[in-house]
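Exercise 7b. Backbone tokens:
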């Protein structure tokens, strides 16, 4: 085909220079969020007649705590401004600084914990602890506060004392704008006219961080939030979806730690036992691999069902099972004989063989098949 000649503008145009990819932005050393002594905790004056040494307070006095009080927090974390490198990045510590999440860490880059959002893909050393290295408990507190439970993966936060503005859609946008700073949000549900919202994160670590970061904070209307763990969602659809999500996470975790060749070989063994036809990509790579996997399967079975490869004669595999038609007929024949003559007695009750046996007798005259 004839080609058109380049125009004068194309000839004189400068050749674009390929741009090198920008290197990833490096974190700067973490800054000190506050100075020592800036944050002073105001103790509430307690009144009462009896002093409870267990709770360290007067009985019948003030019942305010960190979740029910209405005192606004003096500091707030800013991920964009406060995140940075600390000593934990060199020592290998994976846990997050609790005071950093609340915006009041005075150590900055000298802190022994990380000053960043927890990584959803990072595996913590101990699953019984949260992202701040605090021990979880078997059950939740009565007020659904505290660290939480290790028996349930909770990704939903209860947010109370919200001042609603306009309709529920506007309130949901305000909640999303303030809570998305702490991680990826899966869904938000606002209970209109009840000043309550439920925020569900994709990662449980982000929910743990957001719970501490937004405790006693304000949104757009100078309210003081009450942030706690949410109870289990009674919606059956959400229950099924959460169960399916946990199953998929478990399967992915197991698959990531297993050799894919072993997974394919075990799938092939199961297909052969069920009499199914194997696709070409699921066959064994070699006879040695097949025998090794079958030995492993037999070792996991009880003694009554254990079967070794070398003890079983080579039989052609039929479409309906592992044994050939001749082997099945032979097993049926011996089973019929044992059924007809009562079978073999137990080893501890077996009678000794007779001293003299007459000749010309059939199999029915013996005490057992072994005789």
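Sequence design result:
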């Amino acid at each position: 085909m004839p080609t058109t000649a380049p125009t004068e503008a194309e000839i004189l145009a400068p050749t674009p220079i390929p741009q090198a990819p920008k290197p990833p932005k490096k974190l700067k050393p973490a800054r000190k969020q506050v100075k020592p002594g800036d944050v002073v905790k105001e103790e509430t004056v307690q009144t009462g007649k009896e002093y409870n040494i267990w709770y360290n307070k007067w009985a019948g006095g003030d019942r305010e705590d960190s979740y029910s009080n209405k005192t606004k927090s003096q500091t707030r974390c800013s991920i964009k401004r406060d995140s940075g490198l600390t000593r934990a990045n060199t020592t290998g510590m994976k846990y997050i600084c609790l005071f950093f999440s609340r915006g009041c860490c005075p150590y900055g880059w000298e802190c022994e914990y990380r000053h960043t959002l927890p990584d959803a893909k990072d595996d913590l050393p101990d699953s019984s602890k949260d992202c701040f290295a605090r021990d979880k408990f078997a059950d939740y507190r009565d007020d659904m506060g505290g660290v939480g439970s290790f028996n349930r993966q909770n990704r939903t936060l209860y947010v109370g004392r919200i001042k609603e503005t306009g309709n529920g859609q506007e309130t949901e946008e305000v909640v999303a704008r303030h809570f998305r700073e702490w991680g990826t949000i899966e869904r938000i549900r606002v209970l209109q006219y009840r000043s309550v919202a439920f925020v569900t994160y994709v990662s449980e670590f982000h929910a743990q961080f957001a719970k501490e970061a937004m405790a006693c904070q304000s949104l757009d209307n100078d309210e003081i939030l009450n942030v706690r763990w949410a109870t289990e969602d009674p919606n059956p659809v959400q229950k099924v979806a959460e169960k399916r999500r946990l199953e998929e996470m478990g399967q992915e975790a197991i698959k990531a730690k297993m050799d894919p060749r072993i997974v394919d070989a075990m799938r092939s063994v199961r297909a052969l036992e069920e009499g199914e036809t194997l696709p070409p990509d699921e066959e064994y790579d070699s006879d040695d691999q097949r025998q090794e996997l079958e030995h492993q399967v037999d070792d996991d079975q009880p003694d009554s069902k254990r079967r070794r490869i070398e003890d079983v004669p080579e039989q052609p595999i039929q479409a309906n099972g592992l044994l050939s038609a001749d082997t099945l007929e032979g097993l049926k024949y011996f089973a019929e004989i044992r059924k007809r003559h009562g079978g073999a007695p137990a080893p501890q009750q077996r009678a000794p063989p007779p001293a003299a046996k007459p000749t010309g007798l059939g199999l029915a005259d013996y005490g057992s098949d072994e005789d």
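Instructor comment: The CA atoms of residues 18 and 264 lie 45 Å apart. Strands lie at 50-52, 57-59, 156-160, 185-191, 196-201, 226-229.
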